[in-house]
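Standup notes
- DV: blocked on the single-chain target, sequence here:
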Amino acid sequence: MFTGIIETVGTLTGLTPQGADMSITVDSGSLDLSDVKLGDSIATNGVCLTVVELLGNGYRADVSLETIKRSGFAHYKIGDKVNLEKALTLNTRLGGHLVSGHVDGVAEIVKISKLGRATEYWLQAPNELARYIAEKGSITIDGISLTINEIDGAKFKLTIVPHTGLETTIESYVVGRKVNLEVDVIARYLERIMLGDKAAESRLPEQGITMDFLASNGFLK
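- DV (later): unblocked, structure below
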């Protein structure tokens, strides 16, 4: 688990195909790796990756085909900057929110504007994830814990203060940029719980909870 509070920005130094999968190497910059051992997890642009080799200035990790399909790794190139966070411990401050590092999909930045010293970003999420996005709720973008300030269908707005821009990759974002998106894990569990006994059925509707489902199960009057 992670908090979504980025510790430093690293650089992708290697992308090596391994059949359908790939292996990556990361220059971890100022990230303290003295307490990291093989098998530990590091969130790399919001993707929970297992360290399989410690290098003098970073680490190597394997990226599965599932991760490539779900995240932006299919489009990354050597030299790209990535947000880094080590897994949380029991004495870590939870300054963001509980982040699993399991990316749900890719969102696209569709508008950027200034608001005083802050910057506003509008993002388009995949339609199937819109139901997990709530105003003033939490969301993870490229590993960064952020608050949703406004929603419009599958679009949502983030307001980024200067400090966050300086400490992460956000300042480099432009319209059209694709970013990793992880919805709040509580929303996913809540949806599953509300399915009740239907959760055991082998084929559930892809849209999950619907208004018809809520009405037929007594949630609406």
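- Follow-up: Helices lie at 65-70, 162-167, 185-194, 211-216.
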